[in-house]
Design brief:
Layout: H1 32-37, E1 47-51, E2 55-59, H2 61-75
Antiparallel strand pairs: 1-2
């Protein structure tokens, strides 16, 4: 497993993988180290979320689903 770039005093588990350029067709390449770290492979589906102030988040759908389930479980308490 790759080490990840622990740059700028980033806390453990937080990574900066570098920058990417958007191609003419709106595509980006996720850096190899990020793909390996988060087990992203060809054919995987990713969820793209956006916030006007914070920007874009690209995530595996199951990670967002798990977080949403925790929120809903806390609402039931």
């Amino acid at each position: 497993m790759p080490k990840g770039k622990q740059l700028l005093g980033m806390p453990k588990g937080k990574y900066i993988f570098g920058t990417v350029k958007v191609g003419e067709r709106g595509q980006i390449v996720i850096p190899k180290e990020a793909r390996e770290r988060f087990s992203i492979g060809p054919g995987d589906t990713l969820l793209v979320l956006g916030d006007a102030q914070s920007g874009i988040i690209v995530s595996k759908p199951d990670l967002v689903r798990d977080a949403a389930l925790k929120v809903f479980q806390n609402l039931d308490k």
